[in-house]
Amino acid sequence: MNLSWIRNPQVSAMLLLGAAILGLVLANTALGPALDAAKHAHLPFTILGLDLSAAHWVTDGLLVVFFFVVAVELRYEFTQGDLNSIAKAAVPTIAALGGVALPAIIYFTVAGEDGAQGWPIPTATDIAFALGVLALFGRRLPTAVRALLLALAVIDDLIGILFIAVFFTEQVEVPYLALAAVGVVAFWALGRVYRGRRGSWPLRIALVLVAVITWWLVAMSGIHATIAGVLLGLVLAPAPAESARLKLEPFSNGVVLPLFAFTSASVAIPQVPITELSGVFWAIVIALPVGKLFGVTIAGLVGQAALRVPKADRLRLRELIGIGLLAGIGFTVSLLMNELAHRSAEELIVEGTLGVLTGSLISAVLGGAYVALLSRRYPPVDAAERSSSDAQEQLRRTDAEG
């Protein structure tokens, strides 16, 4: 079955948005209480010591697949892609840091002490959603715009992963963590063996078993289980990693992310005037579109000037503004960090979720409208330039399959 259409960033973005809207709508109908009960339901027994609710099986279990795919993409970009040298990575790194720092500062300023622990929430950029909006409305923009947005979002995700590992870990069980490290090494070794024996089913089964065991050990260690997906994706040899990405990406885009969006967005809207919502809601709503816009744009301009990027290779202010607007689409990683930051305060999870959805929607609408208008200033992209990304993707597939 040909599932390549699910890899299309426009399709992925629409699936995410549709699932989130469906979850939010159902949660505010007569089905809301039943849906909430289903999300918090536990199995009548534990699985090797793990006792997770249905919602946590999505965020701690299925979402690992998404983070594995992201990690494979990270590794590719830093070794063979647009970030494979310090010079190439410098500008998007500076822009990403600006897009992390300013939203965090805005959040701290608006949220106050009660919601201070949620400061990482508006620092994330959703790769799939942001690129989907750009692909839908900015078809004539130079490929350099997409390249910088992709690079910025990749670095942004890496920073978000570090935040999850460092700031949202309450207690670490060292024995489990040590065994998880052994599992990562074993996964790396099996991947090296697999390179020369492609198609070996025993090796594939062994890789899957080691991955599942490592995920369980990370979950038991107290570190968020999604970190297992990141570590495994980073250490797997390129050929099996690309092969796994090709097989898992349709499942990640078509099932995992929409299910996560549906689960996270299915919250009951508080029956209070909007002016009475907490500072957490307003901090996220302001920090995502405003903080990302000014943080990315200013840092991008400063980075290009400081690194003396040749004028012919620089992105213009108007292009950086478009990237900054789209970078405010936090969505997936922002929703996850919201749940981790406010796991002891259900009411803040609700308001934080509404803040992420509202802030991301504002960024998507403004960013989509802006790049659509900006795109009119450019001539139609010629066939060679339009197909360059498709050719790169085909080359990656050939390397993985060959």
Q: CATH-wise, what's the superfamily?
A: Na+/H+ antiporter like domain
Task: Indicate the proportion of strand residues.
Answer: under 5%
For the secondary structure, the number of strands is 0
- Tell me, briefly, the overall form: globular
Chain-wise SSE layout:
Layout: H1 9-27, H2 32-39, H3 54-79, H4 86-111, H5 127-137, H6 143-167, H7 174-195, H8 201-221, H9 226-235, H10 238-265, H11 279-306, H12 317-327, H13 331-341, H14 346-375, H15 383-386, H16 388-401
Helix pairs in contact: 1-5, 1-10, 3-6, 3-9, 3-10, 4-6, 4-11, 5-6, 5-14, 6-12, 7-8, 7-9, 8-9, 10-13, 10-16, 11-12, 11-14, 12-14, 13-14
Protein name: Na(+)/H(+) antiporter NhaA
Pfam families: Na_H_antiport_1 (PF06965)
Function: Na(+)/H(+) antiporter that extrudes sodium in exchange for external protons.
